[in-house]
Amino acid sequence: MQLSKQRKTEIIIFIILIIMGLSFYVNYKNLHVKFYNKTGEDIDSLIIAGTLIGNLKNGNSTEYIDFREFAFDSGIPYEQMTGIVKNKKMYQLDWSDCGTDRYEESKGSYVFDLKKEIDDEGNIYLYLVEHNKKIFWEE
Question: What is the DSSP string of the chain?
Fold first, then answer.
């Protein structure tokens, strides 16, 4: 069975549309997150949510990074993270005690600021907050 030139063109256009649709679905079903370093320090070996970010200089930002899911607590990002500042390893700040409002997001696009908190012993902890916003204890 011979296909006409018009029919071949229609099939090719249909295949291209299917490929574009699948590409769109694959790219936008994930969670896309961008991080700004607002700690006042350069961070080496930064890992957030099990994903190696690498080195992030103070005042710089990452590109958008894809995550399968990201943890939140009461609408505030609450993900595991570590990094090295001045040869000292830092961990995430565990600011939430109960965890009843914790949930995972698996799609969307977010921009967060990476900030630090220093405890009474001088230990530095990292936390995330929505870009250019303050977390509840900063206000």
Answer: -PPPHHHHHHHHHHHHHHHHHHHHHHHHSSEEEEEEE-SSS-EEEEEETTEEEEEE-TT-B---EEES-EEEETTEE---EEEEETTEEEEE----SS-TTEEEE-SEEEEEEEEEEE-TT--EEEEEEETT---GGG-
Q: In this structure, what CATH number is given to the domain that contains residue 123?
A: 2.60.40
| Residue 16 amino acid letter | I
What local confidence, expressed as pLDDT, does residue 121 receive? 86
25 has pLDDT over 80: no
57 within domain boundaries: yes
Q: Both tokens of residue 3?
A: 């296909």
Number of domains present in the structure of the chain: 1
pTM of the model: 0.75
Closest CA to 39 of 58, 62, 60: 58
pLDDT in tens, 90-137: 999 888 777 678 888 888 889 999 999 888 888 889 999 999 998 887
12 lies in some domain: no
Q: How many CB atoms lie within 10 A of CB 24?
A: 10
